[in-house]
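Q: Hi! First time doing this. I have a protein sequence and I read that you can turn it into a structure. Is that right? Here it is:
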Amino acid sequence: MRLAIVDLGTNSVRFDVHELGPDNQIFHLHREKLMIRLGEGVFLKHRLSRRSIDLCIEAFQSFKKTIEDFRVLRVVAFGTSALREAKDGDRLIREIKKKTGISIQIISGSEEARLISRGVIANETNLRGRFALVDIGGGSTEVTVCSGKKILRSASFPLGTARLQQVFLKSIPPDEGTEKKASPIDLLRRHIRGVLLYQLVSEDWPKVRKILGSSGTVRALHKILSPHSDKDVIEKKSLSDLVKRMSKMNRAQLSKIPGMESRRIDMILSGAILLEECMNALHAEEVQMTEFSLRDGILDEQMEILRDRKKLLKYDPLNDLYDTAKDLGCNELEIFQSQKIAEDLFNRLKPLHRLDSKWKIYLLAAAILHDTGKAISPIDSSYHSFYVARYADVPAFEDWESKLIAELCAEHKNGKIQKKDLPWKKNEGLQRVFLKLLAILRISTAFSYQRRSSILIDQVRMDSKKVVIKFSKRHRPDLGILRADQKRQLFEEVFKRELMLG
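A: Yes, that's right. Below is the predicted 3D structure, encoded as structure tokens:
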């Protein structure tokens, strides 16, 4: 099977094609990176420029041609900080979908941090002791503290090279301060410290000596500093000296620095200062390079899905169900929204439900089909959805699997379930799985009618008494939250915790 991954970032869009073979073999068939500067002006105007929109669409049209040439069966595309910030990000997503057929999912900052960490941890060898992962992007910076392969703390911060350049360092070199007015660099440092240190101190983040840097900014800085050192690391003193030198240079002088990439000249100073302040906040003495990042986390997660669903190596049964729902008149965005929220909740609630990943496909199938019964009749529509799911012609599913999906569809609406009415009376283990999946499904389907592709779960917190699910403030799904609140009873009964949504 061939898989394509698109990472649409603030500065660059990265596109990979992989061949996924037996025994977890991965063959890299194609890789490209285009610096389209999607975030140009976004952090001041909160809108995408026409130039960056046109470049982005052209890039995706070229990706479509490559996808067709390589006969790719599965495409996953993610958007990060620039699309999270842009008020017109949804319009770009719709335009790309219309012109190329590629669907882009906007992921939250915390999800981005999780996937970056996953990519590094899954691929780096010899991860020992305590260290931090730092990925400096154009719009955000993801920081994770680990002990070996165990994540201790993780967060995404609204700090990135393009964002800081646009807001603070508006000229090259930046203006110098006066007795009455602080310099842009001083203001920039105060801002970074205010954002970083507030969370690190309030949450008592562990200190580290070493950082693994996974971004193009970190690699660019190492390339500049490497002639002055034979070590494969960036040391704090060397970085600080470089910042002092670059702070007084104009564009022409910066371009003459050995190892300087011309396309990074306007953002290299903000990136260097940001990395320096990350080192200070974490008490790190050195930054070591890692070539792994967000795309590798996405790839590793996709491989897990494929391992759990071996038949997906031939084709994806969810695509068949997706087509069935569309053929019955279901709104495509509603289907997508329900499936996306269901998948996100399943992944984030794993410590709570403790279900093996192989059960996720049945939750997603039910999320796709739960409302198909309305095409038959709006009266008792959930039972008509049961019929559609039970007898959908999907060869990948065995009879018991189709029944599980159908039972989830039948009960996705609110209502108390009596134990005597549960299916599989002789299989209590399957009954427990069914109730856990149904509890998650009821919450996720509450958001399917909120027709915005930008609904994002920002944070999920759990303790022994409650589960708190926080949504992105920029696109807060108030109606969906009200509906989910009405359907939380089963969730609280199954997981023995109060559910709080906001």
